[in-house]
Amino acid sequence: MGKVTVTNLAALNPEPAIEFLRAKGHDVVFVDTVDPEVLLDVAPDTEALIIGFIPLSEDTLRQLPNLQCIATTSVGVNTISLKQATAQGIKVCNMPPVSREEVATHAMAGLLAMTRALRPSLETVEKGEWTYSGLPVVPRLSELSLGVYSLGSIARKLVELAAPFFKEVHAYDPYVKPEDWLNGVHRHESLDGLLRNSNILSIHAPLTEETSGFLNEEKIGLMPEGAYVINVARGGLVNEPDLLAGLNSGHLSGAFLDVLEEEPPSANNILISHPKVLITPHVAFRSRVTLRDYVEIPAENVAKVLGGAEPDTLVNG
Q1: Which one of 50, 154, 204, 227 is CB 3.0 to 4.6 Å from 223, fit for a cystine?
Q2: Helices H, strands E: what count in the chain?
Q3: Which residues pair with 4 in a beta bridge?
């Protein structure tokens, strides 16, 4: 049987994965780290990894010659050098969209909280005041357009939830074929076209070289005056200084973020306390169901690879 290393899984409990794999006869060690140097010191001969957000560069992977499988507890695999993993014959498995409903409803919750000015309203009551004097004048959603960047399973669930609230729904995703497009959603051939028609932009794209920092000063400037931004995907998709500038200028009315460029954020991140911003600590995926699945599914993928079978969610096949 194989040697498996489980690294720090952020807020997830690794015990179910460890118990499952040990019951299958595997030698499992837990290394509570996101530092690749610590991993190399403790488990240089590991045959499989279950990881949270530890970076696995080309150099790190070269120093793991026995590695056969990397199973992530996230959908994104941007912390892994897929090119090097593939060259070494390492199977990389991500999470299937088991948190589709959770992330979509989290985006919807943030959308409503932001556009209904719940934060300043709650703060008013907490201060012992009972007045709407000084509170933001909020829009009517049925007069606005929702824009969605990338039309994967989470975005499709959000559209299902949100479409009845809005005048129109627009989307841009160059990888979705016309025959697979959602009925009732305006299809844009360019990102710029989407942005010009998005009073509220919800971002669901993967983090790649193409999408990294795409929402910058130029792109924000294309959005209608008073627009809102939602990001429940990856923090690196948004240029945070440009987002802050858009909020301070008044061009943007608000932002709801479950992800940031730096996590956890530094103490001097102005977005944290900004009155127009709602931030949650990368929790959109969480529910009783997903907290179980996010640990069990990577363990099952590892067991399949070490047993000579194909995993369910192979990324670099």
Answers
A1: 227
A2: 11, 12
A3: 28, 48
pLDDT exceeds cutoff 90 at 157 = yes
> Helix (H, G, I), strand (E, B), or coil: what is residue 101?
helix
d(CA 70, CA 47) in angstroms, rounded, equals 9
Q: Are strands 27-31 and 48-51 parallel, antiparallel or unpaired?
A: unpaired
* Backbone torsions φ then ψ of 29, nearest 5 degrees: -120, 145
d(CA 110, CA 9): 25
Are residues 9 and 291 in contact, defined by beta-carbon separation less than 8 angstroms? Answer: no
- Reported as a pLDDT band with limits 50, 70 and 90, residue 10 is confident
pLDDT band at 2 (very low <50, low <70, confident <90, very high): very high
Is residue 173 pLDDT above 90, yes or no? yes
Cα radius of gyration (the chain): 21
Report the relative pairing of strands 277-279 and 168-172 from DSSP bridges: unpaired
Note whether 264 and 281 are within 8 A (CB): yes
Q: Using alpha carbons, select from 68, 58, 59 the residue that is nearest to residue 5.
A: 68
Distance of alpha carbon 38 from alpha carbon 191, whole angstroms: 41
Give me the chain's average pLDDT, please.
96
Residue 232 to residue 76: CA distance in whole angstroms: 12
pLDDT per position as a tens digit, 247-290: 999 999 999 999 999 999 999 999 999 999 999 999 999 999 99
Sign of CA dihedral 114, 119, 125, 130: negative
Q: How far apart, in whole angstroms, are the C-alpha atoms of residue 182 and residue 179?
A: 9
Report the relative pairing of strands 91-93 and 186-187 from DSSP bridges: unpaired
Q: Are strands 252-257 and 227-231 parallel, antiparallel or unpaired?
A: parallel
Q: Say which residue the tokens 């150099």 belong to.
A: 59
Q: What is the pLDDT of residue 100?
A: 96
User: Would the pTM of this model clear 0.85, i.e. be above it?
Assistant: yes
Determine phi and psi for 257, rounding to 5 degrees: -130, 130
